[in-house]
Amino acid sequence: MLSYLMLAVVGVVVGAVVLGLGLVLGKTSMADDEKVGPYECGFDTLSSARLPFSLRFFLLAVIFLIFDVEIVLLFPLVGVVGADVCLCGASFVSILVVGLFHEWREGSLDWG
C-alpha cells in the first residue's frame, strides 16, 4: 500500500516539474497574428456572428466530406476478389467520377 502511495506522489511531482519547466522555458512570443488566429475557418471568430458566411466555402467543405465518406466505403472492396465485386466497385467509382465532373462543370469546385 505504501509503494502505491509513493508511486502516486512521484508521478504528481514529476508531472508538476515537467509542467513548470514547460511554462518557464516555453516560447511565449505572439509576434504574428496569423499564426495564433483560427486555421482555415473562413471568417474571423472575434468579429460579429451576424456577418454573412461564404456559401462557397461551405459547399466545398460538404463536397469534400461526401467524397471522403465515399472513399471510405471503397475500402472493404480491396480485400475481396470476384467479378461481382469488381463490377460493383467499377459502377460505384463511375458514379463518383460522373458526380465529380458535374460539380466541376457546375463551378462548385472553382474557389476563385
Structure description:
The chain is 64% helix and 0% strand. By secondary structure, the protein is mainly alpha-helical. The protein has a domain at 84-112. The radius of gyration is 26 Å and the shape is flat. The N and C termini lie far apart (67 Å).
Q: How far apart are the termini?
A: 67 Å
- Taken as a percent bin, the fraction of beta residues is under 5%
Q: Give the fraction of residues assigned to helices.
A: 55-70%
Structural class: mainly alpha
The low-confidence parts are: none
Compressed to H and E, one letter per element, the order equals HHHH
**Biggest sheet descriptor:** none
The geometry reads as: flat
The whole-number mean of residue pLDDT values reads 80
Concise account of the structure shown:
It is built from 4 helices and no strands.
Name some characteristics of this structure.
112 residues, mainly alpha, 4 helices, flat
Draw up the topology in text.
Layout: H1 2-25, H2 33-36, H3 55-74, H4 83-106
